[in-house]
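During the reporting period, our protein records have gained a structure token line. One record among many is quoted in full directly below:
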Amino acid sequence: MIRTHSIKRRNILQALGIILCAPIASVLTLPRVFSNSYLEPLNKPHIAWRTQLSPEAYHVLFEHHTEEPNSSELNHEHREGTFICAACYLPLFQSQHKYESGSGWPSFTQPITRHIGTQPDHQFGIVRTEYHCIRCSGHQGHVFNDGPLPTKQRWCNNGLALNFVLKTDPLPLLRS
């Protein structure tokens, strides 16, 4: 009698555990499914950005040009905040990773994880690594292996391809 009763109680407790934990387990898996949906590439033709950007920013972001060195006000931006893509507003770099490289362009030791895509660039007869916003494919700049420790990387960015948002200000909604 005691044995049957304890088995029934154990079965009931196991069933209750499964019933109570199932909703929690499903909630815990939601971020993996939905948290990166804002990183999915936009299905927006590059030409559609022309009305939302200055001609100079469009030229850099979607025609893969480079602004003149030392022409960006962001070279001298040293406040705490976030550097976002000038086209779609996806955050790309945090200010604590910005440094003075002497290159004439805003430079960073690392981007925000998974917010940047890279590809080989064969212009000028040399192979470089071009990087772009993972969401809108806007050209940002090139990454080089001559930066400071700990990454030894220099993410050399066109200032026209970025906007700066102070840490105390809310980030703008992503453009689509």
Observations:
- The chain has two helices and nine strands.
